[in-house]
Amino acid sequence: SQNIYILGIESSCDDTAAAVLHNGRILSNVVATQEIHQKYGGVVPELASRAHQQNIVPVIHEALSRAGISKNDLTAIAFTRGPGLMGSLLVGTSFAKSLSLGLNIPLLDINHMQAHILAHFIEEPEFKKPDFPFLALTISGGHTQIVKVSDYFQMEVIGETLDDAVGEAFDKSAKILGLPYPGGPLVDKYAQKGDPKAFPFPKPKVEGLNFSFSGLKTSILYFIQKQLKEDPKFIDDHLEDICASIQHTIIGILMDKLKKAVKQTGIKQIAIAGGVSANSGIRQTLREAEGKYQWKTYIPKFEYTTDNAAMIAIAGHFKFLSEDFAHMGTTAKARIKM
Ligand code: KG4
Ligand code: ZN
């Protein structure tokens, strides 16, 4: 049998990541998270690009060394072509191209959003894989989509956000509460001890399978401002209940559309992908949906939810198998369709 070693490189936003897969199985998965952005309350593109330049060589080195292989063992190199921040994408793209040229091995260009979904196909002994067709709910800092997945690279967006992404809704709400960036994981943490019904927030009315989150952010802002006028300690005293209520509202919005998508497509297999699928409330709700709605739900291992290179490598693995190689003229692309 064939021995396929794929190096995956991810640099689309603020994480520099590299991973090595052997026949679809993880040998190493390294992520260098850029702390620099925290004090700015969001990712600063120019700083991200510079940090990628500093991190990329050590991160790839570490991935190869943890995998216990040398660069000469590699079969092909997969990299994130987009979507993402141009300056960040360029670092990974240029590096991947140079390495593939230097080692004289194939280059595989990967769509970051497809990769989030394909993370479900990383070989894991106790990890069930979805069958085609399935619906993927991709929820990250930049995207909120419902995708009909018919095959590894046959994906159709059937619903998406008209404004903010779910991750932004979490992060902007967290910012209103004075929590540091990225606030999503902190909202999740406090929500676990709060009452999800403490403060009802309105759900937006949006047609079809599309989403909108900017109104929610505004209503949270107004609500908090009003409460603070009456009680300057409102946030401190009610942080857990506020977070639980925000998270509950966001989950409700997502579930309403998922139910609609299932009804519309007749597909009852649901996979979640993207950074926000690390959220404990969303994971719990989807697990419960198996019994409640007879869905089959797929929840990725925690380390494959937020940005990582293992997902880029597994996407590369399938592209390699179908001999769908990139050429040296390939360029980074800030916006790419599914
Ligand atoms: O997929 P990702 O790592 O990067 C993008 O491609 O955007 O997603 C990052 C987003 C951030 O908005 C972050 O706050 C959110 O995922 N996030 C969470 C949780 N963990 C990460 N949001 C809510 N609950 C979490 N546990
Ligand atoms: Zn992502």
TrEMBL record:
Enzyme Commission numbers on file: 2.3.1.234
**Pfam families named in the record:** TsaD
- Identify which cofactors the protein needs according to its UniProt entry: Fe(2+)
Q: Which domain of life is it from?
A: Bacteria
Catalyzed chemical reaction(s) = L-threonylcarbamoyladenylate + adenosine(37) in tRNA = N(6)-L-threonylcarbamoyladenosine(37) in tRNA + AMP + H(+)
Where is this protein found? Cytoplasm
Name the residues that bind Fe cation: 112, 116, 307
Q: Which residues form the Gcp-like domain?
A: 26-313
Q: Where does substrate bind?
A: 138-142, 171, 184, 188, 279
Q: How is the cofactor bound?
A: Binds 1 Fe(2+) ion per subunit.
Principal subcellular localisation of the protein: cytoplasm
- GO terms assigned for molecular function: tRNA N(6)-L-threonylcarbamoyladenine synthase activity
Keywords for this protein? Acyltransferase, Cytoplasm, Iron, Metal-binding, Transferase, tRNA processing
Q: Which PANTHER family match?
A: TRNA N6-ADENOSINE THREONYLCARBAMOYLTRANSFERASE, TRNA N6-ADENOSINE THREONYLCARBAMOYLTRANSFERASE, MITOCHONDRIAL
What's this protein's family per the entry? Belongs to the KAE1 / TsaD family.
The protein's role, per its UniProt record: Required for the formation of a threonylcarbamoyl group on adenosine at position 37 (t(6)A37) in tRNAs that read codons beginning with adenine. Is involved in the transfer of the threonylcarbamoyl moiety of threonylcarbamoyl-AMP (TC-AMP) to the N6 group of A37, together with TsaE and TsaB. TsaD likely plays a direct catalytic role in this reaction.
From the Swiss-Prot or TrEMBL record, give the protein name: tRNA N6-adenosine threonylcarbamoyltransferase
